[in-house]
Amino acid sequence: MFRKLFPLLFTLTLLLSACDISGSGTLPTPYPESYLPTVIALTAAASQPDHAGPSAGSPFPALDPTPTPTPLPPTETPVPSATPSPTPSLSSAPPDGVIRLAAPGPMSKVVSPLRVIAYVVPGANDRYQVELLGEDGRLLARKVEVHPAPAYSPWVYVALDIPFEIRAAAELARLQISTADEFGLPKAVMSVHVLLQSGGRDVINPSGGTGERAWLSSPLAGSQVTGGEVVVSGKFRPFNEESFILELLDREGRVLGTRLLELGIASAPDGYIPFSTTVPYSVGASTPAKLVLRQSDPRINGLMYLYSLELILHP
After folding, report:
1. Disulfide-capable partner of 211 in 26, 94, 259, 280 (CB 3.0 to 4.6 Å)?
2. Is the pLDDT of residue 298 over 80?
3. Between 6 and 202, whose confidence is greater?
4. If you write DSSP's letter for every residue of 248-292 in order, what string do you get?
């Protein structure tokens, strides 16, 4: 406190000493009279405490510590979980047949030569064959054709005239087109019943449809199958009430498994009957195989239809 009052006392002393207290006269002073109020004011201001900052000897306020950044928790990278592949569903329309017989249609009346119009996916070595069988199963005509498929389509266009001779005025016959794989096993067969006539004129009925009769959702061609059975599901458009047979064949034609289904006649407008079944098999090692779906002809010995696809069977 004394240190703060000392400058004020010192200034007052100078002022008093500058005056003649006894009234004897005025002595000269180091400051002009007009400046004395200013000196007093400055001295008084200097004696006031400084409120702008801390007083001498007081500690400096502690700085706020720099906040330490809190590390974020590591971001977990999601690992995709294994989702089982759903069984493929059927499309809204059946696929085009491997053999699409456009003409003649079922029970057409024809005279020689029989005109055949079709689209065929050729078998091994670009081969396919057209046969005409009489009602007793005898071979009336056969043509073996070799035509590679064009670059823009797997099908080749077929337009053939099949001459025939019959002893009666009319005879039921089966026209069939077939292909085989590189091992000589049937790959596809499509047939139609026609009425052969020794005279008259052709009466050609519309085609029975060009969609594949075996319309499968499972298995897909080239599937790898394990567990001793093949799950087969989809739809089938039968020709008749004969049994629908499913077989597994190896490349030498040996039967590895078989299943027989009684489907009857379809009541749906499109003629297809849904089905689902399994074909058991037994193999000792990985085996290339062919799944064959076929239906026989109850009127003329042989097949009305055959469809096949390749599989790999594992124990």
Report:
1. 94
2. yes
3. 202
4. EE-TT--EEEEEEE------STT--EEEEEEEE---SS-EEEEEE
| Average confidence (pLDDT) over 152-175 | 96
Tokens 């008259």 belong to which residue? 200
Local confidence band at 89 (pLDDT 50, 70, 90 cut-offs):
low
Per-residue pLDDT tens for 127-154?
Answer: 999 999 999 999 999 999 999 999 999 9
Distance in angstroms (rounded) separating the CA atoms of residues 258 and 237: 20
Q: How far is CA 38 from CA 14, 29, 33, in A?
A: 14, 15, 10
Mean of the pLDDT values across residues 158-179? 96
**Token match 């039921």: residue?**
172
Model confidence, pTM: 0.71
Please give the domain boundaries of the chain with CATH numbers for all domains. Answer: 2-47 (no CATH), 93-211 (2.60.40.2550), 213-315 (2.60.40.2550)
